[in-house]
Amino acid sequence: MTADGYVHLNSAASSSLSVTSSDIVLDKEVEAKYSLLERIGRGSSGKVFRAQCRKSGEEVALKVMSAASKEVLKTRREEFEVLQQLQHPNIVQGLDFFGTEHFAVIALSYHAGNTLYRAVRDSELGHFLEDTSRHLFRMLLSAIDYLHQRRIVHRDVKADNILVSYDLMDLHLLDFNTARSLTEGGSLTMTGTIDYSAPEVLNGESPSERHDVWGAGLCLHWMLLGRLPRSASGFPSLSDFEEAVRTNPVKCDGIEWTETSEDCKNIIRLCLSISMQDRPAPMVLLCLPWLQEEEDPPKMPRQSTFPSWSSLETDEPDWDMWPSLDAESVQQTPVWTSFHRSEAEGKQHDSVLAAFHRLDCASRQLSPVAKPGFLEDESRAPALAAFQRLDAESRQVTPLKLALQKLQSRELPELGN
């Protein structure tokens, strides 16, 4: 559940949800611009829908919230105004705002996935491996550092307010309804979730930048162990929980930490320092050894049939696996079929390799492939067809690119018709 009471539904739950008249009645202005596709979240103050812009076809997330008074509507608009000024790859974007007499609607960039809380809970081990945790934590710190450099405090960094992609390769920080700009002046009220409250907040202070670092540290703890170091529900009273947070440092020294590196544990201890002055700023944390290490790509989720390429430099790929790949496992088969047909027709593979090289690795956009003149060259048709069949969500291009580089000087495996 997010800060404002939202529950982000996972793919299995949301796929069975259709949008009905009982879900929401949108303002005519909103309905004229967006068509609702499915409900993907719900909460005490409203619902979240996957929607599509009627003009551009772009998918968005519509956050529809109640706004019973002008003051509440003002608060909803402030959330959008904060998001609107942010441009970061790991922060959800604010695209549009609509305010009516009873509702406020924020159009956000849509990112398929689950909350970090749910992703960890649904994982095979009940927690993430260290490499995966480092990959996601680095992106989270990057987002928080971006905010702090602009004097913005999120104030509710927690696993429920973080969205991760299904393949655990991407992350977005969500729910800015409690975020505030420090440049506006004035005192900040207490807010956030009790289990994620830092010692100084429990002492009555307003959440600051170092409170965001505390929340990030708890998120890393959650990824590595599948639980927080302590929860209010596990104590006889709230005062007992607060006393434990104020006085008992997180040591990371139990048997469950034996497989975690010392550098990783040091990051957690720093983020969860009882004294806020001892918590480094995100930009400092990003320079520490554990987050400077060159990371291996996170392992694909357990349901994937994508072959492992981690040993590409020393071992041959498992060629027997390629023919069995289908449309739900990133569509490699059409790519290799295109190679096979190209070879049979006596055509060179260089144009296909060149097409892969033209991919923008940061955005993974396929449009550069279809630039003017591409279609006129008939030898490139198989490559273009292969790209069009690539799964648009997972976009697992890099392993194929590496394979192509290796295959330049060897004969392709026989794939049959």
TrEMBL record:
**Alphabetical keyword list:** ATP-binding, Kinase, Nucleotide-binding, Serine/threonine-protein kinase, Transferase
Record-annotated Protein kinase domain positions: 34-291
Residues that coordinate or bind ATP: 63
For this protein, the record's InterPro entries field holds: Atg1-like, Kinase-like_dom_sf, Prot_kinase_dom, Protein_kinase_ATP_BS, Ser/Thr_kinase_AS
A Gene Ontology molecular-function term? ATP binding
Database matches in Gene3D superfamilies: Transferase(Phosphotransferase) domain 1 (1.10.510.10)
Asked if the Swiss-Prot or TrEMBL record annotates the protein with the keyword RNA-binding, the reply is no
The record's Gene Ontology cellular component field reads: autophagosome; cytosol; membrane; phagophore assembly site
Family, per entry: Belongs to the protein kinase superfamily.
Could you identify this protein by its name? Par-1 protein
Q: Which organism is it from?
A: Symbiodinium pilosum (Dinoflagellate)
